[in-house]
Amino acid sequence: MQPKTVLFYLKGSKNSNMALAITAYGNKVLREVCDEISSDHEGLQELIDNMWETMYDTNGVGLAAPQVNKPIRLFVIDTEQVYENMDEGEDRDDLFEDNKGIKEVFINAEIIAESEEGWEENEGCLSLPDLNGEVERAWSIEVAYFDCDFKKQTKTFSGFTARVIQHEYDHTEGILYIDHVSGISKRLMKGKLSKIAEGKVAPSYRMRFAK
Question: What does the pLDDT read at residue 138?
Fold first, then answer.
């Protein structure tokens, strides 16, 4: 993980047998506004467990349910691992503002406030392998959500953690980070996007391509 490159995965793969296939760009589910769920949603805990396994297998720092072909408002993030893998110094202090990241499940999340202050950084996505682009995000956000025990939470997050939350929250709204890049960057991505949609990529993890 390079401090100035905010890609939503880390290098390597753990190849867990429990890992689910990542939904690739081109699948309709990535463009759906996802449904809210209740605490008795069938198979919820198993899905959460498998999402954690999938995220770590692909060395991601966040994963949303539509990325495993489930159009529901659920995502998991672990920015603690990013903090721990960064060298001590100015970049880590700037990105984490004296906190050490979080490991959390977000269910039916809603961003209820955003700071006027923003920052632009490089993002990538497991659903769009071998691709990245500059995205501007709010520096801090206030989020209302249910945690893994379905307890209502309202918390403020900032820096890198806020960026990851915004990225994963976008997935539950049918939005991809490429929707935020400049027009020129989007045009330059066109060829690679077509290859991903056609399944002409070979990432180190399993993917579900559009038929």
Answer: 97
Whether residue 36 lies in the annotated active site: no
Looking at residue 141, which CATH number applies to its domain? Answer: 3.90.45.10
Contact 26, 196 (CB under 8 A): yes
* DSSP 8-class letter at 94: H
The residue range of the domain holding 53 is 22-208
Is the CA virtual torsion 67, 103, 61, 135 positive or negative?
positive
Query: Residue 49's closest CA among 141, 144, 122, 148?
Result: 148
The residue from 134, 168, 173, 198 that is catalytic is: 168
Give CA–CA dist 172/180, Å, rounded: 15
Residue 2 in domain: no
Please tell me the distance from the alpha carbon of residue 124 to that of residue 149, in angstroms, as a whole number.
30
Closest by CA to 123, choosing from 62, 76, 67, 74, is 62
Give residue 16's pLDDT.
56
145 lies in some domain: yes
How many domains are there within the chain? 1
Q: Does residue 82 lie within any of the structural domains?
A: yes
**Averaging pLDDT over each range in 16-20, 96-100, 147-151, which range is the top one?**
147-151
DSSP string computed for 65-100: GGGGT--BSEEEEE-HHHHHHSPSSHHHHHHHTT--
